[in-house]
Amino acid sequence: MGRHRAFDEEEVIDAAVAGFWEKGYGATSIRDLAARMQMGGASLYNAFGDKRGLFIRALQRYLDLSSRRRMAELDAAADPLAALHDFFANLVAASLCDRRGCLLVNAAMEVAPIDLELGADIRDGLKEVEDGFRRTIERAQQEGSVDAGMRSEDVARRLLSAVISVRVLARLGEDRALLESIVRSALPPRER
Amino acid sequence: MGRHRAFDEEEVIDAAVAGFWEKGYGATSIRDLAARMQMGGASLYNAFGDKRGLFIRALQRYLDLSSRRRMAELDAAADPLAALHDFFANLVAASLCDRRGCLLVNAAMEVAPIDLELGADIRDGLKEVEDGFRRTIERAQQEGSVDAGMRSEDVARRLLSAVISVRVLARLGEDRALLESIVRSALPPRER
DNA sequence: GATTTTTTAGATCGCCCGATCAAAAAAACA
DNA sequence: TGTTTTTTTGATCGGGCGATCTAAAAAATC
To answer: Nearest by CB to B165, which of A123, A155, A164?
Structure first.
């Protein structure tokens, strides 16, 4: 019973993701968001509770569509080391195109220190990335394309570190040489 | 001619640094800052022009007192590799103590994408850090404590990447194991 | 001591913020 | 068709924001 919602939930959350991603949590106003989502402010509050509630939904949506999707691609790849190289090539290319960086890393910086509950979600999101790297490295080690002598946890963390710093430097507008240099020294080389 | 200023400029800028460092640029209000600096709002505007002007001064002060000071310590160290290890040990310890991270990295994330002029200052600041690392690595190579076969620019950038990601993870409240793992795989080992 | 210049204190400006409210609209039930 | 439940609209709330204004206070110059 009751009036139907006039919006598609995934669509409006995607619009919210775009807003938070571009300008951050604090600098994106409810009015900005409502305009992007093409709905009234009261509808927004009725559907998502408050700004924080909407941000949590947006972050989960970003995790599903960006992080988890990419980790699933790694898991599905026939050649794990090549897939990692592709991943980082795309990362560098995306980082040179725009300055949005990664919503997860942006939120880690802006929101985590003042919202510990959200901080835990963000930490979990990064852990999923780390674990995805670790699985892929282990597959590459079993396959023989990565030295099995290294601890896969350490390599995974080195890759996570590279992702984070590239995402930070993307927001600074740093050049290709710097980003590629960071990726090169974190990623196990292709030919052996 | 004219009335003398009732405040010590370095003191009040230090207070501004503390404010911006703790809460970021956008979330620190002029009233917050004026209270910390123990001066009236009008005096603040009279002395620094506007909020952005104060932030620029605060960032320069941070560069002088934190970044450049630490780079000077590296340059002055008798044992360059040991000094680098000390630097990163201190970095990890500080990152476990509080979530402020690094004002330069915080500003890179929050301010650089929307203020290109300030972004250039931040980029210059990080370049100074990178150059400091490079000089220290080169000294270590001449000394024989670091493999002279590596390109010092690449090692320096790997260290910069480690600093950045540790600073990000500090704001997330990540644990010692993760931070140390990142540092360990970026830093040339001590014994050879 | 009068004048000029600068800094101070406190009030205030217009604006935008997150959030809420009352009332109308739309759908499901009786 | 009348009742009930939910969503929508548009106005509005109190509050904090960056910035400015006026006037008084303090110092240097004449």
So the answer is: A164
Q: Is residue B191 part of a domain?
A: no
Residue-range definition of the domain harbouring residue A108: 9-186
Question: Number of CB pairs < 8 Å for A and B?
Answer: 120
Nearest Cα residue to B155 out of B142, B143, B146, B164:
B146
A153 at B interface, C-beta within 8 A: yes
Number of domains within chain A? 1
Q: Each residue of B113-144: pLDDT tens digit?
A: 999 999 999 999 999 999 999 999 999 999 99
What is the DSSP secondary structure assignment for residue A145, as one 8-state letter? S
Residue A2 belongs to a domain: no
Q: How many CB atoms lie within 10 A of CB A118?
A: 18
B78-97 pLDDT, tens digit each = 999 999 999 999 999 999 99
Dist. CA A67–CA A138, nearest whole Å? 19
CATH number at residue B155: 1.10.357.10
Nearest Cα residue to A55 out of A85, A29, A73, A92: A29
Contacts of B124 in chain A (CB under 8 A): none
Distance linking the first and last C-alpha atoms of chain B: 65
Residue A14 within any structural domain of the chain = yes
Which of these, A50, A24, B118, B17, lies nearest to A34 by C-alpha position? A50
Tokens 């994408």 belong to B113
Let me know if residue A72 belongs to a domain.
yes
Displacement of CA A59 from its chain's centroid (Å): 9
- Taking the CA of residue A45 and the C1' sugar atom of nucleotide C20, their distance in angstroms comes to 10
- Model confidence pLDDT, tens digit, residues B174-188: 999 999 999 999 999
Residues 69-128 in A contacting B (C-alpha not used; CB under 8 Å): 99-101, 105-106, 108-110, 112-114, 116, 119, 122-123, 126
Any atom of strand C under 7 A from CB of B192?
A: no
Alpha-carbon span A6 to A18, nearest angstrom? 20
Whether B182 contacts chain A with CB within 8 A: yes
Nucleotide nearest to A2 (CA to C1'): D6
Per-residue b/e over B143-182, b at no fewer than 16 CB within 10 Å?
eebbeeeeebbebbbbbbbbbbbbbbbbbbbbeeebbbbb
Please list every residue in chain A whose beta carbon sits closer than 8 Å to the beta carbon of residue B26: 26-27
